[in-house]
Amino acid sequence: MEHVVIGLFFVFFLLEFLVEFVLNELNMAWVRKRQAENGVPAIFKGRIGVEDYQKSVDYTLAKGRFQRWADLYGRLVTLFVLFGGVLPFLDRVAQNLGGHFAPRTQATGIVFCLATGLLFSTLSLPTDLYATFGLETRFGFNKTTWKLYLADKLKGFFLGIAIGIPFLFAVLWLMEGTGSYWWLWVFLFVFAFQFLLLVLYPILIAPWFNKFEPLKDDELRERILTLADEVGFKTGGIYTMNGSKRSSHSNAYFTGIGKAKRIVLFDTLLEQMSRDQGLAVLAHEMGHYKMKHVRRMLLVQSLFLLGGLYILSLLIDYAPFFHAFGLEPSNYRALVLLGLISGPLTFYLGPLLNLLSRKHEYEADRFAAKVLKDGKPMEEALINLTVRNLSNLTPHPWYSAYHYSHPTTVERND
Question: Per-residue confidence at 221, pLDDT binned at 50, 70, 90?
């Protein structure tokens, strides 16, 4: 039966690869065709120069070419780990190391899970390094130094250890000690853990990587607070983040829940936008909270998690599922296999989530236009962000539908 498991895995694995490859090629061909036709969308005419349009096309095509090889490399790594004897080797190492700690079962599982994650992080370094110091540097976006890059990796490693060990211990303990309904208990724990991270992230985690300061622009701060008060949005503060030390890309976001909820603006955003445009972006984000989009997406993602854990509970004692990848049945091995094969088995759900996300974006756009009594600042902000970030002005409709969680600027202003 393990041959059936392997066969089904390869069907979905290759199907996902084929879909990704074809869509990427279609997108690049589409962009070249629109450029040859001088197909700058009407909304961008007079707002993007010939040189900037050419640069955005070059950036899009360069990312597409990189995606070809990065995707192929990533898939070869996955196949190597799954079928090259890597997992059984890591399992033996985990059992040897885990035997020195108590409780042994959980210790072994923690070592195996963390070792697998560390291996993938290490093997992803070539593509990550090229994306950061090759592609992004070539187009003037990268501001990350080698020192900062290494510091980020080390911080991420220690943070993964600090969070991963207690998290994995709790999950493995629940799987072992709560009977046949372990999948429900694990789901409840993970759900609660996510909320805890939402509280801790803006206070303890994010400041470890970036510097946050109260917004110094008094006029913009007062306008944001006035708008927040008008729409009933409670915030624990308005901060700027030194995103420019890593990239010249710009953004703004809300983070945290309750009293820990913060409005965060990249310093690059403040440099690239007018106050009206920045206020429109934040009004849009407030719309997501006021219309409960965040809760809806969290609910949908939680249902997927619950479904995945339930399916895993049906497979956890099914020996052929483990034998297909050179392992014996166990809780910790099941968790790793779920993480490795869930992508190819569920990739078709991505466009459905994007469809819901796009609906939310349109609603938030309308909310911003309504509360500001003017849709022009939001339109100008979207155009500004698109031009500044060298975003693809003319993505293929299929590529956009499959990959983009946000509608394109052209779609949002039709």
Answer: confident
